[in-house]
Amino acid sequence: PIYWGNLLKYPGWYVTGYEEAITILQDTRFKNRTPLPQTSKKYEQLKNIQNDMMLFKNQPDHKRLRFLVSNLFTPRMVEHLRPFIQETVNDLLQQFQNKKTMDVVSDFAFPLASLVIAKILGVPQEERYQFREWAASLIQTIDFTRSRKALDTGNAITIILRDYFNELIKKRKHSPEEDLISLLIKEEQQGDRLTDEELLATCILLVIAGHETTVNLISNSILTLLKHPNQLMELKEKPLLIEGAIEECLRYESPTQMTARIATEDIEIHHTTIKKGEQIYILLGAANRDQNKFHDSHLFDITRNPNPHLAFGYGTHFCLGAPLARLETQIAIKSFLAWKDNLQLAASDLQWRKLIGFRSLNELQII
Ligand code: HEM
Question: Is the model more confident about 11 or about 210?
Answer without folding.
Answer: 11
